[in-house]
Amino acid sequence: MELLKPLFESGRIDFQGQDLAGSLATALLALSATVSLGVGFLQKTLSMTFYVYAIGVLLTYLVVLPAWPFFKRNQVNWLPRRTIGAPALVDSPNQPLSRKTLVEDVSDDNDE
Amino acid sequence: MYNFLQRLSGITSFAMSTLMALAVVIALTTPFIPSSPSHTLTLQNVQTTTGRMVDPFDKQSRSAEYARLTFDLDADLTSMLNWNTKLLFAYLTVDYMTDEFNTNSVVIWDRIIRNERQARLKLRRHHNKYLLRNFAKTFEGVSPANLTLYVNPVPYLGIMYDKPLTSVGFQIPRPVKSSK
């Protein structure tokens, strides 16, 4: 599983891209459902409906699943990392960050 | 939706929900498809005899009155075959009332129709496929009967129902006692 981890964690897109991917997927699936209903009814074959719908789902996968460039247009500009003060302990204000800390204290109470 | 697997999971589950909605829409709109089957049912003859089922393993069979119908049936059921029809189940029943039971409905003939060629029924002087025998083993005191043609369209997606098409009234005769 460790070998597959890079594959599963790939395809990151930014937040605007995620909104766009969700809306696009919803619209494309609704569209393929409607189109497949029409095609099947006109062809008088029920199986045609489900084959066309399956093709529509595959097309949706093609459009939304890979991390296309238009999903990555609004990258978030994270602020640069700055030095963090120790948690507020009365007796030792400059205690270095312990390795056992699970959550970093990012409050700026102790800065300057 | 921030990585490939998240998008795959979310979109696939929405696709399955949409598929279910599609199936529900198909099932709900099927009864509104218009169908106009043509049908002519003629009853030529009914005769009743007293007999016993010939079964060497049934030592308790008693003699009973069995009625035999001869009928003609002309029907064109092709308009009932829409995109959501798996098959049509056409059957003839004899309905009558007795003192003992309010409703007696005996299926005497049936046929499964799968395509357009089979949907054009042209039966001449057919007999009943199944025995017509009253529960009380005799047809004495039985009300006038109706021979009714029902068609049950079995859909791929949706609910089955029985559709009565036509009906012919007749009287089930008593057996003629022949002196030999």
TrEMBL record, chain A:
Subcellular location: Endoplasmic reticulum membrane
Main location: endoplasmic reticulum
GO biological process assignments: protein targeting to ER; signal peptide processing
Topology of the protein relative to the lipid bilayer: Multi-pass membrane protein
Entry keyword annotation includes Transcription regulation: no
Transmembrane portions of the chain: 20-42, 48-71
Keyword terms: Endoplasmic reticulum, Membrane, Transmembrane, Transmembrane helix
Any one Gene Ontology cellular component term annotated for this protein: signal peptidase complex
One family name in Pfam for this protein: SPC12
Top-level taxon of origin: Eukaryota
PANTHER family: MICROSOMAL SIGNAL PEPTIDASE 12 KDA SUBUNIT, SIGNAL PEPTIDASE COMPLEX SUBUNIT 1
Similarity comment: Belongs to the SPCS1 family.
Primary role: Component of the signal peptidase complex (SPC) which catalyzes the cleavage of N-terminal signal sequences from nascent proteins as they are translocated into the lumen of the endoplasmic reticulum. Dispensable for SPC enzymatic activity.
The name this protein goes by in its record: Signal peptidase complex subunit 1
Organism: Coemansia asiatica
Record lineage: Eukaryota, Fungi, Fungi incertae sedis, Zoopagomycota, Kickxellomycotina
UniProtKB/TrEMBL annotation, chain B:
One cellular-component annotation, GO: signal peptidase complex
GO BP, one annotated term: protein targeting to ER
Pfam families, sorted: SPC22
Localization, UniProt: Endoplasmic reticulum membrane
Keywords assigned: Endoplasmic reticulum, Membrane, Signal-anchor, Transmembrane, Transmembrane helix
Presence of the UniProt keyword Membrane in the record: yes
Keyword Transcription: no
Membrane topology: Single-pass type II membrane protein
Principal cellular location given in the protein's record: endoplasmic reticulum
Sequence similarity: Belongs to the SPCS3 family.
Function: Essential component of the signal peptidase complex (SPC) which catalyzes the cleavage of N-terminal signal sequences from nascent proteins as they are translocated into the lumen of the endoplasmic reticulum. Essential for the SPC catalytic activity, possibly by stabilizing and positioning the active center of the complex close to the lumenal surface. Essential for viability.
Protein name stated in the entry: Signal peptidase subunit 3
Organism the protein comes from: Coemansia asiatica
Gene name as annotated: SPC3
